Amino acid sequence: IMPYIKDWWSTAQFPPHLPQAFGELGILGMTIPEQYGGAGASHLAYGLVNRELEFADSGMRSFVSVQSGLVMWPIYTYGSDALKSRWLSPLASGNAIGCFGLTEPGAGSDPGNMQTRVRKVGNRYVLNGRKRWVTNGTIADVAIIWAKDEDTEQVLGFAIDTNTEGLSTVDITSKMSMRASISSELYLHDVEVTEEDRLEIIGLRGALSCLNQARFGISFGVLGAA
């Protein structure tokens, strides 16, 4: 990273070869068991890797934090066996990329006020809403999306293939920081998913537990930046 980050930062680009390079180093989903493609490493080891990454650039650490703590961890912790089998190994190798959709334009630091809604229609779920400041959004293969149930007001989480009809993304440009990291807006218009795609957790604590997992690596990362 170090010889090239000046140019990546100046041109606001995240090089497409990096996810697989990170995967080859074994630093994606490090704490996930080896049977799912992770390293089965300690949280301390994961933290030290984030410290080294952010010594080079905050955006590089951001990619690893999102992929590991906000995408792989909830799929491993709350996902169905089908979701684990489909996504974890490709995410660990960097052959698949994930993003995390919680923050919204009108509910940044207050996710309890999210406006994205989901309703049950037969044996499927239909989502509508908008997410903002989504790291990796425009390059992601799978999106972890949080939405409020229209009937119960409970927050539900889903792992959604980004090729699903009705899901679209756009890059946020002209950033002053995290320039070598992709930030996006994500739009959901009648996006239909199955019960198999739903994470097995109900309530905002599901999303907040993911943030806690990611913050561990972030706290080590800022030491690297310092």
Structural class category: alpha+beta
Estimate the strand proportion: 25-35%
Computed Rg: 17 Å
Distance between the termini: 17 Å
Q: Spans of 5+ residues with little confidence (pLDDT < 50)?
A: none
Mean pLDDT: 95
Fraction of residues in helices? 25-40%
Note the overall shape: globular
Tally of helical segments: 6
Along the chain, the helix and strand elements come as HHHHHEEEEEEEEH
Largest sheet data: 8 strands, mixed
Features:
eight-stranded mixed beta sheet, alpha+beta, 226 residues
Q: Any overview of this molecule?
A:
By secondary structure, the protein is α+β, with helices and mostly antiparallel strands. It is built from 6 helices and 8 strands; from the N terminus they run αααααββββββββα. It has helices at residues 5-11, 18-25, 43-56, 58-78, 81-93, 204-225, and strands at 98-101, 117-121, 124-135, 142-149, 155-161, 167-171, 183-194, 198-202. Strands 1, 2, 3, 4, 5, 6, 7 and 8 form an 8-stranded mixed sheet that branches. A hairpin with a 2-residue loop joins β2 and β3. α3 (43-56) packs antiparallel against α4 (58-78). It is globular, with a radius of gyration of 17 Å.
